[in-house]
């Protein structure tokens, strides 16, 4: 399951980056904000998984 969560984190980060870049390109502030939020969600998920990994070893 941990690998699945790590993959979700990477996917969220990548999708967020695409949304943010697209939003900046077309001048859409809402899309830019959504992208940043999605990246943050992915960052938080990744941090949680790294913490769990640290306690397993």
From TrEMBL:
What is the protein name for this chain? CsbD family protein
Q: Which organism is it from?
A: Streptomyces dioscori
CsbD-like domain location: 5-57
Chain intervals for the UniProt region annotation (Disordered): 1-57
Q: Which family does it belong to?
A: Belongs to the UPF0337 (CsbD) family.
Q: Which SUPFAM superfamilies match?
A: Hypothetical protein YjbJ
Composition bias type Basic and acidic residues, residue spans: 1-22, 31-57
